[in-house]
Design brief:
- It is a single chain.
- Helices cover 47% and strands 11% of the residues.
- The protein is mainly alpha-helical.
- The chain has a domain of 101 residues.
- The radius of gyration is 22 Å and the shape is elongated.
- The protein starts with a helix and ends in a 7-residue tail after the last helix.
Amino acid sequence: MAFSILNIAAELNQDRLGEDDDWLIATVGYMHGGAPLGYRPTDPSHGRYLIGTLVTDWMGIGGVTPVLCWSEERSQWEMVFGPVHGSPFGAIGLALMMAVSEKDGLAICSNCHKSYLPTRRPNPRRRNYCPTCGKLAAWRDAARAARAKRRVVDIESPARKRH
């Protein structure tokens, strides 16, 4: 079934519907042990909706849910989105989600704090920004950090005078 979902997703990502045989297998009813429904969407948009629903259902059955936890190592909140409390079936669902979306993982924007699918893996030691916030937020944060650094230098060296 996972193979059929991957086949369909690859086709949908090229704006094609995929093979009838794959759609026969990739149905929620079939995943729950029922007979294949034989349903095929008429357009890629509806196909994407169906595959998204199917992968989400797969992860739910497998017990994969986001978990918010504090990272002592990084001194920040992290959203762990994996089979922490799930099963191998859920881990496969998570892998399907990443493969279907053609992404390495989820990221949290350093500005708006919303999750997004990055185009490349963000560096965990640096701020990262979603496409909506983008470079403007990055420039604003960099300027704020530079001002803060200058204030610390000015406080630590009172003999230094500005002209």
